Fold this sequence. Notes:
The chain is of the alpha/beta class and 405 residues long.
Amino acid sequence: MQDxxxxxxxxxxxxxxxxxxxxxxxxxxxxxxxxxxxxxxEIENLSDCDDTNVLINALDSNDTTFDIGAAGTSMRFxxxxxxxxxxxxxxxxxxxxxxxxxxxxxxxxxxxxAKIEYIEKTGYPPLRIFGSALTGGEIHxxxxxxxxxxxxxxxxxxxMQIGLKIVLEGKIISKPYIKMTMxxxxxxxxxxxxxxxxxxxxxxxYQPITYKVESDWSAASYWYEILAxxxxxxxxxxxxxxxxxxxxxxxxxxxNSLGVSTTYMSDGVLxxxxxxxxxxMEYDFTDQPDLAQTFAVTCCMKGIPFNFxxxxxxxxxxxxxxxxxxxxxxKLGFLLFEPAEGMLAWDxxxxxxxxxxxxxxxxxxRMAMAFAxxxxxxxxxxxxxxxxxxxxxxxxxDFGKIENP
Length: 405
């Protein structure tokens, strides 16, 4: 595939039906839980994204060395899973993955009875893991650490000899992802006690079940953005439901004030314009950090100043997303700034646009997809468009349906 995609799309009759990818977050948890339950059943509607395929290949492999590329979820989940799986394992990843911290998870697992060593730089992958039975016990973690660390520990907790008690201290971020893990563990027959800031999981056995993964609300956000820009027509998104485990289902409520209404149907949702538009957006994305790029781009292109908080985790994602948004939206004439740690704001200050506008994607799938809808308003170039394969492999094919429904 070419290393850039030039886009400028016009449409006056937006009427498309989109089969969204399956939820990556649910798929990856289901794979680990399925393995822990020694399930004979095949999981239905698994995500076909890079992150999930990496995890499938690792769990199905007879190898002892795993290269998980840029798949952060797979790195965290596999580290915990392999730590209780008898054998000697090596887990590595891309250059960016080697810069993403994993020290907190490794220290927690080692404290609970694991034996994990750093092969290169202390605190970062690659790791050498000597898998064996984990003792368990009580650990204290800051609530603002990645929820993937917490979920990784939770999922292996029932296999620990004395179970696990996690005490979260301070502000807890990404709580919906912790609750997603808890609810899914419950479906597999394991009881989790999560009250206030404490998670208690006794030693238990997972039960194999049949499981079907729902569609991805994070991926839906780009279609809300598209309709917000077009302002007429409708988009039908298959496979979404109102009672989702996914924190990003909040996108439906948030876009209601940016001009898009959501109607829940039997097998998905219908998006339609509602002509509502706020003049300023203030929101705490603590529970939905993956939506921040969508809303930053949407607000700028619609001329809506904003003040976003709860973005602490964005700096350790596929790229530093705060910095990336400031850099790339400046190319479109918007001067964003970081008022304080974990915040991003735009007060309507603008600058001259230098043509052509070529958006760097930083090996980050969400940068490519959040900026793609800008093509409905002006000509734009998306660099390295293939990065969407990380979570939404068919994104460009679906995006082309806007002009050719």
